[in-house]
Task: structure prediction
Amino acid sequence: MGQAVVTLKKGEGRTLKAGGMWVFDNEIDSIMGSFDNGDVVEVHDFDGYFCGYGYINTKSKITVRILARKRDTVIDAAFMEQRVRDAWVYRKETIDTSSCRLIFGEADFLPGIVVDKFSDVLVVESLALGIDRWKITIVDALKKVLKEDGITIRGVYERSDAKVRLQEGMERYKGFIGEPFDTKVEIEENGVKYIVDVEDGQKTGFFLDQKNNRAAIHRICKGKKVLDCFTHTGSFALNAGIAGAKSVLGVDASQLAVDQASENAKLNGLEESVHFQCADVFELLPELEAKGEQYDVVILDPPAFTKSRSSVKNAVKGYREINLRGLKLVKNGGYLVTCSCSHFMEPELFAKTIREAANGAHKRLRQVEFSTQGCDHPILWAADRSYYLKFYIFQVCEDR
Result:
């Protein structure tokens, strides 16, 4: 291990030295020794100071992803199992583990891999060449560690079909790890039941990061008329329904998502009060405004409008537009629930955009709540990309 040595340029590696996990191609002065992409290498500062071990991939702009910083560390199966144990202990101490994210890449010091647990099924997303070599070892360690707590995993599915794999020189892939099983999995969260499609659902099948935020809307939805935009498979809409909302309309551009959301409504006995519509939210909101529709609660949980710094400007326009339109549909004294799941939409910029939308709609906002992603998606302060979700609840007041 560590036969090849990556040496940083003088003055580079500031993020790495501050606790970051990545070494970019433009920070590297030289690579000495033999290696294959995916191998573990040593990283040295320009003066020879040891910075850590990480796996290398010269096809990626993120050339090295750091695994360990202590010189005497051995990167082997026992190392991976300990990382897995640490991640599981943390989740047991901080969140309901019936369904949760077990491994969150860099934030769990296992860069490039995500593992979600849906009841007794694991879904794996491998995003980097180096960790792909350890994928089965990590899965086996998870099964072993969970078994010690009486949890038997009946199946594992891989959803390594993200485009980012192409940047690593890897093919996109999805399929079973081990024996096939029924990929429609029933879970329960906040008292709401869902059928999660781990094979064909978005990402790993279900967005676990909003668990606590979905619970937070319960107290403002009882007896209310609710509009849930970008509903996906109905998670916020169903939480509003379980909380006792009088009526809920969930909207999504995907007919598949709407069909799944409708199934979930039936599963919870909510088909009379919670309904879903396939429509483009940007087109529907002005139509609802023109009809004079008003809601007690409007929920905006859009997909990431930007996945790079270069497109932030256009993303701001999108967030401003939907928040302005959403605010116009909220009754005086009602509530706006609004989110951004883009890392590049930084908290200050998101807040500024909401403020501009409120001014444009001639509304005044009183902040009820602000939070981020669930603690099973921990935010590692030295790895700022692990912080991505911003969630607000506001009371909406007319100008006075």
In short: The two ends are 68 Å apart (CA to CA).
